[in-house]
Design goal:
Four copies of one chain form a homotetramer. With 198 residues, chain A is mainly α. Chain A has ten helices and no strands. The interface between C and D is large, with 44 and 45 residues. The first copy, chain A, binds a DNA duplex (21 and 21 nucleotides) through helix 3.
DNA sequence: CATGAATGAGCATTCATTCAT
DNA sequence: CATGAATGAATGCTCATTCAT
């Protein structure tokens, strides 16, 4: 099958996403990768310098997804709760539907892939900055408990993330009785009541 | 050093726990394993059929550790907050120090290990039952918001678990500025204020 | 850049000379070769059957260079020392600047290339004949020790050749402190004093 | 075939010497090496960390040969000429009989093997030091022309070395008419007359 | 009981070469 | 005429496992 470079490249990335998600980086051999992408092993190296580069390209593409979660320009304006609600819903919907990214991240963390850690730093900076800013404003307005906004932002996200883990990775069915929106509303409510300043 | 068969076996398992936890299953070679356990590679195969069997034996041992966190049958008596606080601190301390269990669970989940899922069901039942009971009592006393106690219990745990993930798996250093106790106290505070009935 | 077939061919050969000289035959990949010659790898095969053929063509060209050192038929006329001095300087300068020939000869000798040996016979005949004639005259004039002029000629050349080896192949820096002319003058002095008849 | 570790190690080194000498370092594949040594490729790596290490071991063993050329304790005492004569004869005899070392060095130099260059530095230091010292003494005694003793020592050796190259590598038969001793005597005579101070 | 010796299968990667367009 | 797409065959090296001693 003769494809253009662009098409082949995409096919390789697609195959890699699938395999990295199901087998991890180490568990994905170039042989399987080539097979899945429909070309020879040697062919892979015309498009990517090495296996690691394929992996990095996948992660780097995913960084752009963050903008998808915060679509209205990088910063929640008026209403933090509404922004966060929508962001969380979008995050859950997308990652429940396609668990590739979640799994790649976890596999890489387990394999202690060095690139992942620098990637995660970047992601956390981009992802949490808008939330942290809003929380900071809340703290300044004495609406939110005076505590490290970084920690608070991550604790908020923890409930979203664990929900995702339970639904996708751990096959816990107890959340299935509720719509995503209901869960998110509950989390938002608990978090904001919980961090209210007294 | 002349050891009995039983001792040798234990030494191998000990070495394996250490290595699997820090390097993962694939990252642990039989060479390093033998070296760490103080015998030849060939020797490993006198005690275990193969590498997989060593891994499984550790998994089984680790699973039994769960009782450590939740002394069997024990039920939070007087003060849920205090019970939960101690349980959470114990959970974090142990799993930060030895990440084997956390990693094994995640690896198994990623590999869609069927045994894991039924095991997890069991764990969740054991783990969450005492918390859920207390929450239920709180709901009945109108102290806690009237919502599915299963979900509430898991949302509480989510913050503990994500803290663990950030510290151990994702190499996020932002929690390192605080003692575990401080983080747990914050989580407890947020959660209980957050779920308070109005 | 649109080149004629002839030009392209020349460009490939030029690139190949450069690369073979600095990286050797095995160290020169068709990829680098194509890049250096400014065309695609596939393009190389329009002009040459394979890599070996490029190598052989260069070898042939280099062999013809020999005439440069020993303008054909030329015989040292008046002053052997001056002739030899200039020939040696030319030989060293050229081969230090472009080591292709030196390396090709050595590679071929190591590979016991039969063609090389008959070629070398020819070269030695051409190369040493003028020197030998002059030495013979010196012997007849009782100026030079009476010994096999073939051996004497080769011993003279040995110092020139080893100087070349040290400087180019063996990366010995001790000759770098001197100009080529100084070294050659020293060699000439030692040789002629050394072979003087008593 | 079941050999002891020591025997196998020796067999590998022997095979490597043979192959490196006839094919060069790059031209010697681990496959051929294993085959020649009578074990599997994987087996090689029980005895050596990698191909390079085998190569280095061979060279390092050869460094001891230098003591063989200067057997009477490291420094020529009374008579430099006699010492050098014997050293040169021993050098030629040994390397004519077994050209392995000569060829390995040349191949490595052509392949620009980094380890070779540091090895050569070591060798030159050890090999030329005694000769240089004697020459220096000669210079101080005004018996030898006042010139860089390093260069002089190397020019002496150049005639020995080129003789070796012609006889072994370049298949030049003109030296075959003479005994090694005769050639060496001639070289010694030419060199010492040539460098005599006036 | 213990291990040194040995390996088949597999790994990521490279390379010279071919061929459809 | 030129090349992008493609690969078979190799390369150095690793690993879990076996077996004779």
């Amino acid at each position: 099958m003769r494809l253009t470079g662009r098409e082949r490249r995409q096919k390789i990335l697609q195959a890699a996403k699938k395999l990295f998600a199901s087998k991890g980086f180490k568990g994905t051999t170039t042989q399987k990768l080539a097979q899945e992408a429909g070309l020879s092993e040697a062919g892979l190296y015309k498009y990517f310098k090495n296996k690691q580069e394929i992996y990095e390209e996948i992660l780097n593409q995913k960084i752009q997804d963050i903008d998808f979660y915060f679509p209205s320009g990088q910063q929640p304006k008026n209403n933090l709760k509404i922004e966060l609600r929508e962001c969380a819903i979008r995050f859950l919907q997308r990652n429940i539907q396609d668990t590739t990214f979640l799994k790649i991240i976890l596999y890489s963390a387990l394999e202690e892939n060095d690139f992942l850690f620098s990637f995660l730093k970047e992601v956390r900076k981009k992802f949490f900055t808008p939330i942290k800013k809003s929380i900071k404003k809340g703290i300044e307005n004495k609406k939110i408990k005076n505590f490290d906004e970084d920690i608070l932002a991550k604790l908020f996200f923890s409930m979203i993330y664990y929900t995702l883990l339970l639904k996708t990775l751990f096959k816990d069915e107890s959340f299935d009785a509720y719509k995503i929106e209901e869960i998110v509303d509950l989390i938002i409510e608990i978090f904001f009541k919980g961090v209210e300043s007294e």
